[in-house]
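Predict both folds.
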Amino acid sequence: MPADSPREVGARIAARRRARRYSQPDLAREARVSLSMLRKIEQGQRSPGDSTLEALARVLDVDATQLRTGYQGTERRVHAALPGLSAVIAGYEIPQGRPTRAPGELAHAVSTAVGWRLGAQYGRIAATIPDVLADAIRYVHTAPASEHQDAARLLASAARTADAIAYKYQARDLSARLIDLMRWAADRSADPLVAATAAYVRTETFFSARAHEVGLAALEQAVDAAPAPVAPLEAAARGALHMRAAVIAGRAANTAAADTHLGHARALAKQVGREGTYLGTSFGPDSVRIHEVSVAVSLGPTAVDRALSVAEEWAPPSSLPAERRSGFYIELARAQDWAGLQADAFESLKVARAAAPQHTREHPWAREVAAGLRRHYRADAESLTHFAEWIGAV
């Protein structure tokens, strides 16, 4: 895809700066960029180089792809990090010395990386997660008894965050190993909520293998083992399992099971009361709405009206994590394409890209829809061709 114009990039930087309530001098100082250069960039008179773009993105708390959509640095960084991740977890059950961070520093590093995962900022995860994960493994082996449960929880969260880049970038074997590490940490935590989260993430392996029936059975076992939903955290953990069970039931063409699990998820979302992030997973009424579309798309073209009816009366609020909003519009685009609404499908893909560029770029369904639109949809052909080139659908 042709690079964004300097004016487009500058406008995005300026808009993000204002949203973050930075003045130009503030941003220039924090990013270590000259004020005159920043002014020229925002005015579209100068295009930022990769290092400048990364520095601005870091301060503005976005992935660089959200400032320049054709930026390739994120992909290079992720692929460069994968071998290191593989090495870090090769012998996770073997003690390997003491962590380099104090427990509080490690907890902060893991929490920050979780925020990047929810925001689909994969380049930022890749830059730090191998070292963070290594420290989390060391901490589990060296923590005193009074800290052991917290150490295991941190390791499970770090492994899940590392899995986000492995799974999204098609490193399926590494993803499966990271999920095994997460489950190992969950066992050591003796925390049923961490075990429920691990079961939620483990579903990726069933999706990858197209083993939908056994995946549904595994999730239903996890629901049975989850704590009773007596408080919001427990209700959210169980509700997330029901949401994911509904989707995999849809892919197994089990409409009755899909609807049953969606019904349980709705009831638990009502009990929780409002959308939030619980143990690293978004859950609440908005997430359930998104999964209604996911289930409809999983059931295939015959259920397209179910997906479209949700989108007619509701759209994800901007407060939802970027990755979840992007996923909604990718799946909606698939339903719209099936329904012959090609113009709407293309618009949905563009909204998905605006929300989470790297998530959209790496999503196989987004690539599939874009490729089909390019072959059969002639309106706005030049713009669609550019999009298809950006996403790798040509």
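Second protein follows, with its predicted structure tokens after the sequence.
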Amino acid sequence: MMTDLTQSWPAPSAPKPIVIIGAGGIVRDAHMPAYAKAGLTVTGVTDLDAERANSLASDHNIPNVYASVQDAAAAGGTDVVYDIAVPPHAIAPILRDLPDGAAMLIQKPMGADLVQAREIRQICRDKGLKAAVNFQLRFSPMMMAARGAIASGLIGELLEIEVHLNIFTPWTLFPFLIPMERVEIAVHSIHYLDTIRALAGNPDAVFARSMRDPRAADFAQTRTSVILDYGDTLRGTMSINHNHQAGRKFQSAWFRVEGTTGVMMIKLGVCFDYPNGEADELWFCKNGGDWEQIALEGGWFIESFMGTMRNVQRFDAGEDNHLFAGVEDAYQTMALVEACFDSMKTPGTPLNLG
């Protein structure tokens, strides 16, 4: 039954304290409230902007503010879990400064491109780091339930995964994206590509086009179309438009996951009226039956951020035997993203997993 499916990652029995590297908006808006709800303790923070680090510490009663990553690593060693929430180009240098064998959660994306992702992967291998990437959508209650439904055969053989977004995103909230050459797929739809991988594995190849829009003229891309080649049975597609100007009535932000015996519709509530958002929704229909809404134990924001850190903590303690979004798996999401960009030049580009 859909109502019996697991929607959350189990809590660690003896969690380590967390030290945060980077005190930006995502930490304030998602990490800190999620960790508080999960009963996880943050004991330290560092940021290049000392005022920002001190402000976060003051607002959330974090006892230690470190002047540098090196100071944080010297104080914490491997007795803490590091939460690295910095821009993608800054990840690799930070990893080099952390203790060998340490456990950590790295903000997505895993570098700015596949070259940086490969460097991050190699550093983690060389230093024996227990590292995961914060691809949280796959940890959300709705996607955890959907993955369980597929695995248990509740919708039969998987035939269709379609992601459809027709929304208005206020791009002016993100001026830091203006100089970036890669925007929509690299920053936004990467979540959907990663979640599709979590549900169905890697496609054989991709066909993609991401483009700008005169209604958001300062940004390199705000509209995307993707076809994922899974062979002759499973169809994977994404249609993304962030610039819908005609109000809420016909906006949409859904995953449709369809099988031989049933279908799920999954609403991405955070995409509506951003950043205010609406509630996530999960609906299920058995062929020939009635639609049933499945009660969710929370949303993408903030409950999924509990799951990513819980998995790292449990893996570090030996309670989990794998990292669900570990760097080896996250690298494959980065390879899929890179294949999308390559496909704009060479249609039908295969993934480069080397």
